[in-house]
């Protein structure tokens, strides 16, 4: 029986959903939404704050500041409330209303950046705002999830060993990419493991995390409007980009079976099912990560008007059994373990790498 006195001391580590009966391919979905921050970001937030405390960067009058599309903001709000720090989250207009309200309920301040950039993102403006704040008052401490090694180390120390313990025969791991902390922590761990694991990164069409053409993205959490500074592509075997309409179809298909997950889980599951349908998966042990649950997305991906306005009335036309890339695919010979980037859209050379300093305090 877990008994805790601080919220970040509890996380459900060992819950998986077997998706075979829902999608027709065996995929074990690791559920990361069962903790007091409601997402996988609690791990990164805890590791970053505790490292900063050990390094003497955080003092009782520090004000934490971070740019987040929501989940890291909630995780830092949870920890800040528990430890008595002030926290200011800089987010943007794509942040879900409920996520914003949770942060405020936990005592954090939320600043929303409204102006979208030419590349369709908000990240540059969010970071610029954080930098300006930090320059104005030395009490601000920016942990910088985009560059902070504690972000990926959290997953190297926790997420990956949790999976390894339960799946000693793991073959393929599907991971969504935001800052790439989850991806890099797991990929580094499994590179050193006793058997090869194929690491497949999922990204949204319109994200430029792995290059390609920027485009509209409305679902927060996954995807980036710049290349993630933590990303080292030599650890990634394949990249799959998923259309947001397919993300939505996968989310609704799961919801119709009683599993209400967040948007990025739809991306990961849709991309993974497409991959499994293209390969002979009979002998494969495949795991994917579900970063959060669905309540925070009730006013977006589970809201009919929002869906119709953005994706058209047909997006869920076949609502009982929504179509997705997994539906029409036929098996091909077993995957070979050669390293290869399989981009569905764009290439690796068209994107400028932004100048991004590793600046953890300001
Ligand atoms: C909702 C959500 N939270 C967290 C993550 C993890 O992102 P990262 O560790 O790449 O920042 C993702 C990525 O899929 C996500 O979608």
Automatic annotation (TrEMBL):
Residues 339-362 have a biased composition (Basic and acidic residues). Residues 322-362 are annotated as: Disordered. It comes from the Bacteria. Its cofactor is pyridoxal 5'-phosphate. Residues 22-274 form the Tryptophan synthase beta chain-like PALP domain. GO terms for molecular function: transferase activity. GO terms for biological process: alpha-amino acid metabolic process. Keywords: Pyridoxal phosphate, Transferase. Homodimer. This is 2,3-diaminopropionate biosynthesis protein SbnA. It comes from Streptomyces albiflavescens.
